[in-house]
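Researcher: Good morning. I'm working through a list of sequences from a screen, and I'd like to move beyond sequence-only analysis. For each chain I'm collecting a predicted structure so we can compare shapes side by side. This is the next one on the list. No need for commentary yet; just the structure.
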Amino acid sequence: QVALPPGQRSRLVALVDESSTLGAADYPRMLSELGKYGASFVLVTQSLAKLDAIDEALRPTLFSNIDGLMVFQVSAQDARYLAPELGNDLDVPDLTALDDFECYARWWADGRRIPTFSLRLDRPPPADYERLKAVVEASAERYGRPRDEVTKEIEAVLAHRGEPVRARAETPANSSTGAQGTEEALVKQEPVQTANPKQKPPRNQHRGQRVKK
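Model: Good morning. Structure tokens for this chain:
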């Protein structure tokens, strides 16, 4: 897209969960270079220490290039670093005492930084197990193969490598990979309880502006 004017370039948003597990990704270069050509990245990590494990220079480089920051409940160690990044007179306890689905956010809009505010995300809706079952069945029909067929292929590869082949247990007739076992595991799960009869009052009301979505 280099030859296209900025207004005509296609936008691409990459959501990278557990971003710290992709140690080979050159995030600093991706953020600084690809952003000029219409690419945006949403990087998710559970702790800042995981970023440091990849490269000690990664954390400061990321924070100097990001346009938005959302912080859910974190450890005190991470909170000491993140509180100044968020600003708005936030302290360590404000970040360590966040409830589930609650976070502080620092965003930019039209080249200007919006004051840090807090928000609470909606809880995920209850799982639709009928839909899950239909997805599993469709996936098994399209991609599934008889278990014995797959096992024989694996044994042939191991034999070609000269590796020992383990004795395998008998499998039910018409058993396919990715089908029955997965379906039963999904169907037998208990629905997620979203109601909380003893809802406690929200914390951190003295900080920032609360926006409920």
